[in-house]
Design goal:
Radius of gyration: 19 Å
Number of strands: 0
Structural class: mainly alpha
Largest sheet: none
Strand content: under 5%
Order of helices and strands: HHHHHHH
Length: about 150
């Protein structure tokens, strides 16, 4: 569902879709990360702060996907290099952000709960990545598919 939302946002530039990207994971976290009242009082504000930082990276990722879709049929070597470089930088930025916040979560949660939280985050991310991998056409697929379709004119 999140991957579909990302794809729709990338295709149509939908601000409302972009804002909904961070709305659903909290339920999974809340359901699967048992917290005491005191832990919850410290966890949820930090979680929101972390998600806001992630949202900035998600926004950059959507812009990169928009650029890919805009150029999909006319992708130059230069465009391909720029898109790949941006993608790799985003991966590095996501990892850097995660490393920064691991330390913050460790200060308020036990090591086991911190691990569990990041396992849940990883599962959510893996679901999105899997859906995106299936949804995003590989370079050259769109034009190859279009040229393989028979023309309706005779």
């Amino acid at each position: 569902i999140l991957a579909e939302t990302i794809m729709k946002a990338a295709r149509v530039g939908s601000i409302s879709s972009r804002n909904s990207l961070s709305c659903w994971p909290w339920r999974t976290i809340a359901t699967n990360l048992p917290l005491s009242s005191a832990e919850a009082d410290r966890f949820w504000p930090l979680y929101r702060q972390y998600q806001l930082a992630r949202d900035e990276l998600v926004e950059r990722r959507i812009k990169n996907l928009e650029a890919y879709y805009e150029r999909l049929d006319t992708l130059s070597e230069e465009d391909a290099a720029q898109l790949l470089d941006t993608h790799l930088q985003l991966q590095e930025d996501f990892l850097s952000l995660k490393k920064r916040y691991v330390g913050k979560f460790r200060k308020i949660l036990s090591q086991q709960k911190t691990l569990r939280y990041f396992q849940l985050e990883h599962r959510l991310d893996a679901m999105v990545e899997d859906e995106l991998a299936q949804s995003i056409p590989l370079t050259g697929e769109a034009s190859a598919a279009q040229s393989a379709q028979p023309s309706s004119t005779q």
